[in-house]
Design a protein that fits this description.
about 10% strand; alpha+beta; globular; 23 helices; 5-stranded antiparallel beta sheet
C-alpha cells in the first residue's frame, strides 16, 4: 500500500487508525516517522514519504514519533493472512527466531537460502531480516524500559542486543532519547511496576468483539494450564528460554497483558504468541465488509462486528487437544486434557504468587510432544483408536515430520495432517484454523456450524455449505466464528467470572 501515495495521504489526513501497521509516514522536514493516525498536525504532502515497515523508515534515517509511538501500534495483518515466504519469515522474526538463531537459523527453518530471503524481504518491506529484527529489539527494549525496574544491562540482553553499547546506540537512534530518559518519561504519574511481572497494552484495530474470543478460551480451558478468573484469561507458557504465565484482560481500546517470565529474553516471543492467540493483528473492516455481502451472515456481523478467531500460543499443544476433542463434548475433552496434564505435564517453576496471581490455579505446562511421544499408548485412559492417534501425532511432531510452527507452510502442514491415520477433516480443519492461523480454514462438518447454518437459512449439508462458502473466501474461518455465535454454546458467549 505504501506505493500508493495519494491513498496514503488520504489516510494520514483523516487520521485513519485502520491503516496503522499497513504503512508508516516519514516526515522529511523533522526526520520522524509516525502511524497514519498520529494526532499531530499532518505535514504538507510534499514533505511526506511512506515506508512499508518501521525498519525501512529507521534505515532511511528517521526516528520514531514520541507522540503516536508507531512501535506500539498493531502489526500488519498481512503476515497472518498469507502463507508465502515473506509472511512465514515475518512470523518467525516476530517469534524471535533471528535473535535466537540468526539469519542462518531463519533460512534453515524456511528451507531457503539466506540470500533469497534477504532479497524478498528487501523487495517487499524495504529492509532485510537483520534490520527487521533490530527494529523489533528496539520495541522490546522500550517495553522493558517502561514497564519494569530491570537494570539497563539486563534490559539490553533480554531484548536480544549483543552488547550494552549497541543497545544504547539503537535506543537513542530510534527514539531520540536515552534509555534512562525513556524510563523517566514513562514513570511520571504511574505506579511502580510489580516485581517479577510486566504489564503492557496490546493494541488492536477496532472493532473487537471479545465474546467468542474469550468465551471459547474459557469454555475449553484445561485445569492447571488455563483458567478464566477475575475477568481475565490466565495460562502457562512454554517458551524457548524458560516458562511463563500470562493474564489477558479485555479493556476499552486494548488488551491488558500481564506477564511473568523465568527468563526476560522470552518477552518478544511471549508478546508475539499472545497477539497471535487473540488474533489482534486482524483487519476487521476487510473481514466484516466481505461477510456482510452475504444476507445470511449480515445480521450476525451487524449484531457483534469484529469477531476474531481464537488461536493458540502453541500449535503442537493445539494439535494434541484437537485429537482429544474428536467426537466428544467440550467438557469431556477438558477432562481428558486435564488428566494428561496431571500425569505428564511439566510442573510450573514460577513462584506461586505469579501463577495467575493470588488464588490462581495454574500448576503445569501442557505436556510437550517429546513427552507424549515416549508414552505407551496403553497407558492412556481413552478409546484405543484415539490414544493411538494421539501418540502417533506426538511422535510426528517430535520427529519433525509434522511442522506446525509460526513459519510452517500451511499447505504442506495440511497434507501432513491428512496423511496421519486418525486425523479426519474436522480435526485437520480445526488445527489449520487455530494452530496454523489459516484465515480461510473451514469446518463444514462441525455440528455447531451445521446447526447455525440451518437456523440462518444456509445449506445444511457439508457439501452444499462448502459450495456456498466459496463467496466468503479468504475469510471462512471468521465466518465460522459468526456461525458459532448463532448457536447457544458457552464458547460463543462472554465468559462468566467465578
Amino acid at each position: 500500500m505504501h506505493t500508493d501515495f495519494d491513498r496514503c495521504v488520504r489516510a494520514v489526513r483523516s487520521k485513519d487508525a485502520r491503516f496503522d501497521g499497513w504503512f508508516f509516514t516519514a516526515v522529511l522536514t523533522t526526520r520522524i516517522y509516525c502511524r497514519p493516525s498520529c494526532p499531530a498536525v499532518p505535514p504538507k504532502d510534499r514533505n511526506m514519504a511512506f515506508y512499508p515497515s518501521a525498519a525501512a523508515a529507521q534505515q532511511a534515517g528517521f526516528r520514531a514519533c514520541k507522540r503516536c509511538r508507531p512501535d506500539a501500534g498493531p502489526g500488519s495483518p498481512r503476515w497472518n493472512e498469507r502463507a508465502d515466504l515473506v509472511a512465514r519469515a515475518m512470523r518467525l522474526i516476530g517469534d524471535g527466531t533471528v535473535d535466537r538463531e540468526g539469519v542462518r537459523g531463519l533460512a534453515d527453518r524456511l528451507g531457503y537460502s539466506t540470500r533469497q530471503i534477504e532479497r524478498q524481504l528487501l523487495a517487499e518491506l524495504g529492509a532485510g531480516p537483520l534490520a527487521l529484527a533490530r527494529a523489533q529489539r528496539a520495541q522490546t527494549a522500550r517495553v522493558l524500559i517502561e514497564t519494569s525496574a530491570l537494570p539497563m544491562s539486563d534490559v539490553a540482553f533480554a531484548a536480544g542486543f549483543s552488547s550494552l553499547r549497541t543497545f544504547n546506540e539503537t535506543v537513542r537512534e530510534v527514539f531520540a532519547l536515552t534509555p534512562t530518559d525513556l524510563r523517566a518519561r514513562a514513570s511520571r504519574g504511574h505506579a511502580p511496576a510489580t516485581p517479577g511481572t510486566l504489564t503492557l497494552r496490546l493494541p488492536f484495530r477496532a472493532p473487537l468483539c471479545p465474546d467468542n474470543l474469550f468465551g471459547l478460551l474459557a469454555a475449553t480451558a484445561v485445569p492447571g494450564v488455563e483458567e478464566w478468573r477475575d475477568g481475565a484469561y490466565h495460562r502457562t507458557l512454554r517458551l524457548p528460554y524458560g516458562q511463563g504465565t500470562v493474564a489477558l484482560r479485555p479493556r476499552p481500546g486494548h488488551i491488558e497483558c500481564r506477564l511473568a517470565l523465568t527468563d526476560q529474553r522470552d518477552l518478544t516471543g511471549a508478546i508475539s504468541r499472545c497477539r497471535r492467540l487473540l488474533d489482534l493483528d486482524a483487519d476487521p473492516e476487510a473481514v466484516d465488509g466481505l461477510l456482510r455481502t452475504d444476507p445470511h451472515l449480515a445480521p450476525l456481523v451487524d449484531k457483534s462486528p469484529g469477531r476474531r478467531v481464537p488461536r493458540t500460543v502453541d500449535a503442537e499443544e493445539l494439535a494434541v487437544r484437537a485429537v482429544l476433542g474428536q467426537q466428544v463434548s467440550t467438557a469431556a475433552a477438558r477432562t481428558l486434557a486435564a488428566r494428561l496434564v496431571a500425569a505428564h505435564g511439566e510442573p510450573l517453576a514460577l513462584p506461586g504468587a505469579t501463577a495467575g496471581g493470588p488464588g490462581g490455579g495454574l500448576t503445569h505446562l501442557f505436556p510437550s510432544a517429546e513427552a507424549l511421544a515416549a508414552l505407551d499408548p496403553a497407558a492412556l485412559a481413552m478409546p484405543a483408536g484415539r490414544r493411538a492417534t494421539l501418540v502417533r501425532t506426538a511422535r510426528a511432531l517430535a520427529a519433525g515430520e509434522l511442522a506446525l510452527g509460526p513459519g510452517s507452510d500451511w499447505a504442506r502442514a495440511r497434507a501432513q495432517l491428512a496423511g496421519l491415520p486418525g486425523i479426519g477433516p474436522w480435526t485437520a480443519g480445526l488445527i489449520a484454523m487455530r494452530g496454523l492461523g489459516d484465515p480461510d480454514a473451514f469446518l463444514p462438518t462441525d455440528l455447531g456450524v451445521r446447526r447455525a447454518a440451518a437456523r440462518t437459512g444456509l445449506p445444511a449439508t457439508p457439501a452444499a455449505l462448502t459450495r456456498h462458502a466459496t463467496a466468503w473466501r479468504p475469510w471462512r474461518a471468521y465466518a465460522v466464528q459468526y456461525l458459532w455465535s448463532a448457536d447457544d454454546h458457552a464458547a460463543a458467549r462472554p465468559p462468566v467470572t467465578p
